[in-house]
Each structure stands twice: as structure tokens, then as C-alpha cells.
Amino acid sequence: MPNIWKARCKGTPPSAETMADELSVSPLIVDILWNRGLTSVEEMDRFLSPGLRHLAPPSEVPGLTEAAEVLAAGIAEGRKLAVWGDYDVDGITSTVLVKEFFAARGIEVMHHLPNRLEEGYGMNVPGVEQLAEQGVQMLLTVDCGISDNESVARARELGMIVVVSDHHLPGDELPDAHAVCDPRLNDGGPYDDLAGVGVAFMLMCALNKLLPGTPADMRSLLDLVALGTVADVVRLTNMNRILVKNGLLLIKEAKRPGMAALKVVCDYERGADLGAGQIGFNLAPRINAAGRMGDPTKALDMLMADTFDAAMPIAEELNAINMERRRQEQEISDEAFEQAESMKDMAGLVLYAEHWHPGIIGIVASRVVEKYYRPTLILCAAEDGGMLKGSGRSISEFDLHESLKSVSPILNGFGGHKQAAGLSILPENLEALREQFNAYVIEQLGPDPLTPTLKLDKELPFADITNTLLNELELLQPFGLGNPEPVFGSTPVYVDEYRTFGREHEHVKLVLSDDTTGAKLPGKAWRMSDKLKGVQGRLMRFAFTPKIDRFRGIPKIDLRIRDWNF
Fold first, then answer.
1. Which residue has the higher pLDDT, 550 or 516?
2. Do 200 and 177 touch, CB atoms closer than 8 A?
3. Does the pLDDT value for residue 1 go beyond 60?
4. Comparing 486-500, 509-523, 538-552, which segment has the lowest mean pLDDT?
5. 81-114 pLDDT, tens per residue?
6. CB burial of residue 204 (10 Å; 0-12, 13-18, 19+)
7. Which of 32, 42, 50, 437 pairs as cysteine with 242 (C-beta 3.0–4.6 A)?
8. DSSP code string of 138-161
9. Of 381, 376, 340, whose CA–CA distance to 357 is shortest?
10. Structural contact between residues 487 and 35, judged by C-beta atoms closer than 8 angstroms
11. How far apart are the C-alpha atoms of 536 and 378, rounded to whole Å?
């Protein structure tokens, strides 16, 4: 859909040339950083070179010091430990990280990753009871637990020491664990935006100093932190930027056999230098597919494999599962779009079909939001048939978690963040949810759908786009929430060539030329073929992100088209 173009510009630094010289970058990079709130050479230098020395102490995470002390005491008592994770990338990488940390310290740890289709999200009492039967005496949760009061209480009844580490929003009442560690317990700390794997990493860092013996090398775990953090779509600023930037270096090296295998099935070289976008769109979905379609243990086994030969068959299996997930995603998306078309008068969309896959509806909700720019809930039948399960995605102007709070009397449960959430509801309350959710969206945003805003960093003529500039733009990686890829506006250019590609011819390849300078560049517009018909030969302006395309190993400049106007 068309966007409102808005300059990100907050002004020009008074001494951009001098600052650029000090940082050994071009003035354009200084302009971009300035307009993102960095106003001194020191701040910019820390952003461009975010070393691990800049991390705040782990004790800045609320409850972390107590959590580390409780774990250390339990280990000293010889208690058998299990870690309870989640079925998504964040939860799986958190679980692997904890197990590998303790293995490096000579301590064997059991684990439990819930089957999404059979157990659902978070902890559950039968799973806790099963761990107790296996002799578990201490339980650590990662990426879950903050809302699992009943399961935590049952674990304590069974004599377990319980430590909750999570990053989700806490409810009105915290679980009665021996320690609760969650950045969301307080507002405004340096670790506010950690993913679950980030919390687990900082907790293990603190524990590393409390346990006797030779400390583990925590840096070797940063590839897991980067993978889980990028996949969980948290803000890639401040502490997350430091963790992910350093973790990306390990993903490039791919010394972990499972990471190397994952890169290979994604058609990357083992030593390929990947950005956050490539991880989020290629690596992460293959790990997520295991949990979405059923058993997340396959992904854990791949990441913990000792050799490339052991990891590769699992990676290939995950790749096949992901292909099936993509097929189902397209089918569900087509049906969801059809429903959404019939509800264009609604400010908030609630879409439902009994047969939709519960592990895929979240992805489809994102696609519906992308197409219609409205808060969206998508529901399907739960496995037991007695309940509906839902997943929601939102737009930047709307707090989805607060909206579900407002309709909570008709829900059986919910949780999540401002932009993404999950819920469960009885079938007889579906229509009431449609009415109340729509009414709340209207109350917050008004009855008319909003138009998304696209922020442009600067106008950038094609003649100024060089390999040197693109290499400098790579210094701004990792891109994501809180640190979006720079988007530039073109001067008026002609569309010399137009060609569709993709299974459904949904994507477009263009060749654009600037007659004033003679510069000519290729570009790709993803999922835009229906909107970009009949543009060949026209004079247009494009919003774009320039990239270095390394397809087939030959680097060349390519534009990712974001939007256009005439």
C-alpha cells in the first residue's frame, strides 16, 4: 500500500566533515547517525564499534543477581538441574546456550522444549511432574515462566528450586519462584530490550563468576545470542546491538557445526558474512519451522551437534519442514486475505478458520498487517478442539498487548508484547472478540485506517551510490527494530526494464536510469507485481535501500525498492 514519505532529518550536524574525518567515514554516515539521535563523535564511535567492554554489568538486569546466587547454591548442593525453554528460535537458542554453558563447567543439564501442538506455549503442570519423576530438583526457565504461576507453584510443591528467567511482560502477580529474573520488572534499565537468550546469556555470565573451577569462555556462545535475538525481533540498540554485532562475527566463522550446516542449506557459503536480515529471513525460519510444525528438539539437536556430518542431515530435514511450512503459509495467507477483503470497514481485523495451522497463523498475521496496515488477530482451532488459539500482530501506532488486556474478560489467556501477542478463547466468544477488538482499535486510532509512514534518511542520487558507500553502510549493521536499514529517496528516474519473477510472478525486477548523470542500477520489488504494472518507460521517484548483491559470489550494487511515487 502507498506510504507517506517523511524525512528522518533532525538537522545537519554543524561539523559533519570534521566528525566524518575523525571517524574515517563519509559525511553521509555522520548525517544518518546524527538523525538517529547520536550527537557526539564518542557516541557514534561506540555505535560503529560496539565492543563487549561496553556491556553494562549483568546485575543491571532486575533479579539477575539473586537468580545467579540461587542457581549457584543449588549446584553446590548437587541438585539435578533442568532447563525449560520455548519452541521458537529464542527459546531453543536459550536452551542450547544454558546446556552448553553447564557442559563447559562439567555439569550435565536436562531440558524440556514443549511441543507446540500438544503442549502450547510456556510451562505446563504435566511436564513439570514428568521432570520431577526423572529426578529433577532444580528448574530454570528461559524465554518463558513469567506468567506460569500454576506450573511454578507445582514445581515448588514437588520440592524443586525454581528460577524464572524471561523477557516477556509480567502479569499482575509474579510466579512464586525462588528467584525471578526479567528486564521487564523495571522500566528504563540498560537491558530493557533483551530477548530471552540475552537474559539467559547475562545470567550465565553472572553464574560463571560464582561457580568454582575454570570459567567458561562466554564469547563462544554469542552466535546463539545473535541468532535468537534477531529472530525474536527485539530492538537492536544499546546492549542488544553489542551482543548481536559480536555474535554475527561468530556466525560468519560458523565454527559451530550446526550453524555451518544451517548456512549451507540456506545456500550460503560456510564462511559467508551475514547480516541480521539474512538471519531473520533465512536461518531463523528453518529453526522456527521445527517448533511451528511440532517438535523443536530437532533444531536443538542440530545446534548441539558435534560434527558437520551429524548436523547436516538435521539441517536438511529442517529445510524440508520449512518448505512445507511455506506452502501452508501461502494457502492460509490467500484465505486470510480473502476474509480481510470482506472486512474492509473494520479498523481491527479478527480472522478465523478452523483448519488453519496454529504454528503458522502468526506469520500470516504479519502479512495481513503488511498488506492492510491494521491490527490483526488470526485464530484457528486448538488441537483439543475445545478452544480457539490466536496470534496477533500490530502496527507501530497501536499497543496490541494493551488491547488484549481491554478484552481480557472474554479471553481464556493471553500474553506478548506491543507488536505481537498470543491468545486463547472459547469459540462462543469469537463474535464478541471481533466487536470489542474493533471498538478498542477505533477508540485508540479512530475509525479510518491509517496510512503507514516511510521515513527517508536522505535523497541519494544514483551517481553517488558506490561500493565504498555500501561498505560504510554495512558498518551500521545489525539492522532491525530500533535501527532500521537506511532508506533513501531517488531523484526522478526512468524505468528502463520491467520483469516479474517468483513462483506466482509476485516479485519485480527493474532497471532504473538517471538521465541527468547516465547512472543505471537494477532493483527488486518484493511482492509488488500487482501494484507496479505498466510502469516501464515512466519517470518516477523511488524509495530504496542500496545493497551489495553477492549472488553467485560476484558483488554488485542492487536496490531494494520500498515504495514509489510519480
1. 516
2. no
3. no
4. 538-552
5. 999 999 999 999 999 999 999 999 999 999 999 9
6. buried
7. 50
8. EEEEES--TT-HHHHHHHHHTT-E
9. 381
10. no
11. 38
CA dist., res. 447 & res. 502, Å (int): 36
Please give the backbone phi and psi of residue 212, each rounded to the nearest 5 degrees, phi first: -70, 160
Going by C-alpha positions, the residue among 135, 138, 184 that lies closest to residue 161 is 138
Phi, psi of 433 (to 5 degrees): -60, -45
State the pLDDT confidence band at 199, using cuts at 50, 70 and 90.
Answer: very high
Residues 6+ apart with CB under 8 A from 409: none
Read off the amino acid at residue 272.
A
Q: Is the dihedral of CA 264, 266, 268, 273 positive or negative?
A: negative
As a whole number of Å, the CA-based R_g of the chain is 24
Determine how β-strand 493-501 pairs with β-strand 138-142.
unpaired
**pLDDT band, very low/low/confident/very high, at 172 (cuts 50, 70, 90):** confident
**Where does the pLDDT of residue 553 fall: very low under 50, low under 70, confident under 90, or very high at 90 and above?**
low
Please name the residue that has the C-alpha cell 522444549.
113
Q: pLDDT for 356-388, tens place per residue?
A: 998 899 999 999 999 999 999 999 998 766 899
pTM: 0.89
What is the C-alpha to C-alpha distance for residues 206 and 59, in angstroms, rounded to an integer?
Answer: 8
Q: Side by side, which strands form the sheet with 388-393?
A: 349-352, 376-381, 388-393, 420-425, 413-416
- What percentage of the chain's residues is helix, strand, coil (to nearest 5)? 45, 20, 40
Do you know the residue count of the chain? 566
435 and 493 in contact (C-beta within 8 Å)? no
Q: Which residues contact 312 (CB under 8 A, 6 or more apart)?
A: 261, 264, 265
- Cβ–Cβ under 8 Å, residues 175 and 155: no
Q: Is the pLDDT of residue 554 over 80?
A: no
User: pLDDT confidence of 174, banded at 50, 70, 90?
Assistant: very high
Q: What is the DSSP string of 58-73?
A: GGGSTTHHHHHHHHHH
Q: Write the burial class of residue 475 (CB in 10 Å: 0-12 exposed, 13-18 middle, 19+ buried).
A: middle
- CA 469 to CA 467: how far, in whole Å? 5
Q: Which of 10-19, 40-49, 219-228, 486-495 has the lowest mean pLDDT?
A: 10-19
C-alpha 172/C-alpha 405 separation (Å) is 11
Grouping H, G, I as helix, E, B as strand and the rest as coil, residue 454 is strand
For residues 272 and 266, the answer to whether their CB atoms sit within 8 Å is: no
Give the side-chain half-sphere CA count within 13 A for 277: 10
